[in-house]
Amino acid sequence: MTLAPGTTAHQNTEAPAVVPSQVGVLGGGRMGAGIAHAFLVAGSHVTVVERDADAAAAAHERVLGAVDTALRLGAIEGARSSFADRLSVATDASAFAGAGLVVEAVPEVVSLKSQALRSVEAHLAPDAWLASNTSSLSITDLAGVLERPARFIGLHFFNPVPVSTLIEVVTGAATSPELVALAAGWVSALGKTPILVRDSPGFASSRLGVAIALEAIRMVEEGVASPADIDAAMVLGYKHPVGPLRTTDLVGLDVRLGIAEHLHSTLGERFAPPQLLRDLVARGDLGRKSGRGFFDWKDAS
């Protein structure tokens, strides 16, 4: 599928903007819960699979917490029970047996994702679709462990999922054109904008976002300016909604480091992680989730 200049994926497909009736999400952390929430709000029955009962229960609360927030803010309408009744959690991939689509959202580690995708595919019907939420790993490489690579695609959601408006639709070498068109329709049905990206290191968003973030971190390291002032330069000078260092805190410094290391290994020295980033991660200053990164998040809700 080729995009015309200046267009996005949803402008190039006749696929209906509807989501599958049964959707699975592997991994119920912050991203996985956000993905589950998005499909739940769009009308799907959603099953989240986690590693154990405690993690599954936490994922259930995380998704319904997002529903509660959306209801309170008036972003969605309906009774809480109408969403809760369509959400289930489990601890085994066999729970995905009836799903038309499963989105993998486990940590950004090749071996972990490969193992997870193989496990999920083994439980899916032959006509089901499979996607990865990877932000930088090769869709073509991940598809290499699958029996049905044509039915696999990248769906890169952005954090926080409920308020983000973009999803990268990443096509691997074997991804079928039918799936590309369907995926663009799903994204539109979620109320978000799909952009179509050919599989390459970092895709479009991570490659650009990491490049800016790494340079911002080097500027902090060199004493050019404070994190707040560097962010202000991008927010006020270039109209970015959030600065690169605050975004890094929201994404997680450990996640940012992992992506940078992957891009460094595939694209070269321009993506070499600054020592400051390595030091902060080693110290446990991972951003919002740990309470501190480039900014103090201890009082954040």
From TrEMBL:
InterPro entries: 3-OHacyl-CoA_DH, 3-OHacyl-CoA_DH_NAD-bd, 3HC_DH_C, 6-PGluconate_DH-like_C_sf, 6PGD_dom2, NAD(P)-bd_dom_sf. Gene3D superfamilies: N-(1-d-carboxylethyl)-l-norvaline Dehydrogenase, domain 2, NAD(P)-binding Rossmann-like Domain. The keyword Protein biosynthesis does not apply. It comes from the Bacteria. SUPFAM superfamilies: 6-phosphogluconate dehydrogenase C-terminal domain-like, NAD(P)-binding Rossmann-fold domains. Residues 22-199 form the 3-hydroxyacyl-CoA dehydrogenase NAD binding domain. Pathway: Lipid metabolism; butanoate metabolism. GO terms for biological process: fatty acid metabolic process. The record marks H156 as: Important for catalytic activity. Signal peptide: none annotated. GO terms for molecular function: NAD+ binding; oxidoreductase activity, acting on the CH-OH group of donors, NAD or NADP as acceptor. Residues 202-297 form the 3-hydroxyacyl-CoA dehydrogenase C-terminal domain. Keywords: Oxidoreductase. Belongs to the 3-hydroxyacyl-CoA dehydrogenase family. This is 3-hydroxyacyl-CoA dehydrogenase family protein. It comes from Cryobacterium algoritolerans.
